[in-house]
Amino acid sequence: MKIIFFDTETTGNGTKDFLCQLAVKERGVAEPVVNAMYKPPVPIPFECSAIHHISNKMVADRPSFKDAPEYPALKALFESDDTICVAHNAAFDEQILKNDDIHIKNLLCTFKVIRELDTEGAFAMHKLQYLRYALDIELEVAAHEAFADVLVLEQLFEYELAKAMALWNCDEAAALEKMRVISTEPLAIRAFDFGKYKGKTIAEVAASDIGYLSWLLDQKKHSDKDERDWIYTLEKYIS
């Protein structure tokens, strides 16, 4: 089974956005499978350029992703039964690739896996760049650049895999399969990391302000982002 790590930089964080950069790396191979920018079918908003520093001028002469010569090989790689595709907050990147007609067969989400493995609440948050420093991942790379994030992602994956094998007392193949299954299931969110209840558990807020959870559920259901984990969590407490 081939393991690849991938990251996208995009025109936004909604379900109808498109990639403007894609980086893919195979496990243990130094050179990227691809690390390229593409011209998306919609303009890149300035607020997105301020994060990933890719401007409309930079992609003006680039092909669209689907017109790029490497697209057929990448589509075959992502859609292969023999490839495990690893990303952080993978549902978002999965949707971005779906918007360009790539349908991943085997997806592994390091965000969901670290939430599952962090049974003692050792990490205040589970964002990739936070974990980069919390785990002392020593890499001379910038943040919010696709290939740089892929290098961090690979190291995070190796940490998770080793921890999973020890915690579940199993070999690599069994740990990978369980990590993959966790990645397909809705994530039960434990606590707020935003807003007026930041730091409070969902259970604490449910006991004191169930109306807020009902209001938040309605917001999440009408969001243009992938909010399936929040919807799953809130419905558990409200039902």
Write up what this structure looks like:
This protein is 46% helix and 12% strand. It has a five-stranded mixed sheet, sandwiched between helices. The radius of gyration is 18 Å and the shape is globular. It folds into two domains: 2-184, Ribonuclease H-like superfamily/Ribonuclease H (Nucleotidyltransferase, domain 5), CATH 3.30.420.10; 187-239, no CATH class. By secondary structure, the chain is an alpha/beta fold. The longest helix is centred in the middle third of the chain and has 23 residues, at 146-168. The model has no long low-confidence stretch (mean pLDDT 93).
Summarize the structure.
The chain is α/β, with parallel strands linked by helices. It is built from eleven helices and five strands, in the order E-E-E-H-H-H-E-H-E-H-H-H-H-H-H-H. The protein has two domains: 2-184, 2-Layer Sandwich (Nucleotidyltransferase, domain 5); 187-239, no CATH class.
How is the topology of this model organized?
Elements: E1 2-10, E2 19-26, E3 34-37, H1 46-52, H2 56-59, H3 71-79, E4 83-87, H4 90-98, E5 107-109, H5 110-117, H6 128-134, H7 146-168, H8 172-184, H9 202-208, H10 210-221, H11 228-238
Parallel strand pairs: 1-4, 4-5
Antiparallel strand pairs: 1-2, 2-3
